[in-house]
């Protein structure tokens, strides 16, 4: 496990690598962001961004989603994985917004997670990006990078990863750290082909050092 000093080294390096890291989901308001994050579950932001321009042109308010048949909404998001369950959740979410929140996305995380299809990660993203609240949303990239680097333990759950990061990273840096870790995992420390030989953090990365030793051993045979 990395020390606090080493974690700060890691985060400073990742900030230098991705100084402009931010949410890549296309949106213009909290409602659109919530829908986009819901759609992004087990789908890439790039794919979601191909679907949402026409979707958000057609559906501007919660009422718009409710008024169309489920099959029509399913067809509008068919390119995205799990589109049937996501369409149902969008309709339920919009119904809740109208009945319980005056048609507006609630700012409080405890209220956000009550919405259909909105888990802890989605709630943290919306709270952070839409409302400027400090939060660390743990997606697959954040979890992978945190464990590979030794910030967290391999056996940690997603919630444990989030709590560890919140404890070891200053609160003022939670939101930017979340985005930087995503960029680092998405564009550098990839799931299948991490760029270990060129990584400036290799000297601290336990997983990267293991991979390099295996590569050297394979080349020596």
What report would you give on this structure?
By secondary structure, this protein is an all-alpha fold. It folds into two domains: 4-20 and 137-220, Endonuclease Iii, domain 2; 30-131, Endonuclease III, domain 1, CATH 1.10.340.30. The chain has twelve helices and no strands. The chain has helices spanning 4-17, 30-39, 45-58, 62-67, 70-76, 83-100, 109-112, 120-131, 140-149, 158-168, 174-187, 206-220. Helix 5 packs across helix 6 (83-100) and helix 9 crosses helix 11. The model has no long low-confidence stretch (mean pLDDT 96).
Features:
Endonuclease Iii, domain 2, Endonuclease III, domain 1, single chain, 221 residues, mainly alpha, 61% helix, 2 domains
The CATH topology name of the largest domain reads: Endonuclease III, domain 1
If classified by CATH, what would the architecture of the largest domain be?
Orthogonal Bundle
Rg estimate, integer Å: 19 Å
Tell me the overall shape.
Answer: elongated
Oligomer: single chain
CATH hierarchy class name of the largest domain: Mainly Alpha
As a percent range, the share of strand residues is under 5%
Q: Which structural class do you get from the secondary structure elements?
A: mainly alpha
Q: With helices defined by DSSP (H or I, 4 residues minimum), what is the helix count?
A: 12
Kindly give the count of domains.
2
Q: How many DSSP-defined strands?
A: 0
